[in-house]
């Protein structure tokens, strides 16, 4: 059976099949340089931003020109708020406005990289950003949501580079002593159509971000999502979906229909077809009613697997919306850190 990029079965939508296709090695250093030199071309494919509409239902529910949420508003403590503001400014200057000269201001000298195509340290990152100016001059990134907790900040971004497809990105940055010190990312091209009719980016659940709303406790959101993730992925307990997920959940995973029944069916199929599958190296970030978990999914022990980021919105004690981004783990890496 064909598998979606998240390990779930692929589904046919509008007669279109939606599918997606760490290691050190003695030659890894040479290969890393080759990968780095070709990075601009790769990013032109993986970091593009063109509006290729979803289904007509998606276009109605997710207007392409809708303004992104005011994502940088912090609900955490003052230190978390300062970290969130620093990363948001860094991301805007370096990766949206493509200013490599700003790297020295924000990035520490021991910058640790988990993107498999980029070496550790600020120098290779600077070369990547410099190359973006010429390799993808029409690229435009729109930050959809930002989640910060402690020293970690996650940005969920829509990237466009006409006439290519949209690309979904999640970037996680760690801040140490006022400098960006570590980076993980997950990159997935967005399909033209989805099983739910929802794109991979919009916020559909109510209230909309920025509306007057009672604050949702970060602690209660984190506890709920951690329990859900553990009970479902480690304990393989499908009833966790019944306990923690709204039956009418708004779904943005491109291979799943909306509603908890489709999610439950997908996990039941995964557990039956991949009884040795695992979800490990989980990294959680929670703020207010949003929680993200990035982890290593493998269908079995020999499988290199995928990096998967799931983002959840929690309202009234239930997960009401879910976004995903997943990326296959490559056989070699330009750095020794793995993607996790």
Strand-helix topology:
Blueprint (H helix, E strand, L loop, with lengths): L11 E2 L2 E2 L10 H10 L1 H8 L9 H6 L16 H19 L6 H4 E7 L8 H14 L4 E10 L2 E9 L6 E10 L2 E11 L28 H17 L4 H6 E7 L8 H14 L4 E10 L2 E9 L7 E10 L2 E11 L12
Parallel strand pairs: 3-7, 8-12
Antiparallel strand pairs: 1-2, 4-5, 5-6, 6-7, 9-10, 10-11, 11-12
Q: Describe it for me?
A:
This protein is an alpha+beta fold and 340 residues long. The protein contains nine helices and twelve strands. The longest helix has 19 residues, at 78-96. It is globular. 44% of the residues are buried. Mean pLDDT is 83; it is low at 11-70.
Key structural traits:
single chain, 340 residues, alpha+beta, five-stranded mixed sheet, 9 helices, 29% helix, globular
The largest sheet has its strands arranged as 3-7-6-5-4
* 3D shape: globular
Please report the distance between the alpha carbons of the first and last residues. 28 Å
- What composes the largest sheet? 5 strands, mixed
Mean pLDDT: 83
- Helix/strand order, N-terminal first: EEHHHHHEHEEEEHHEHEEEE
Q: How many extended strands?
A: 12
Helix share bin: 25-40%
Provide the low-confidence segments as ranges. Answer: 11-70
The helix-and-strand class reads alpha+beta
State the helix count: 9
- Which range does the strand content fall in? 25-35%
* Rg calc: 19 Å
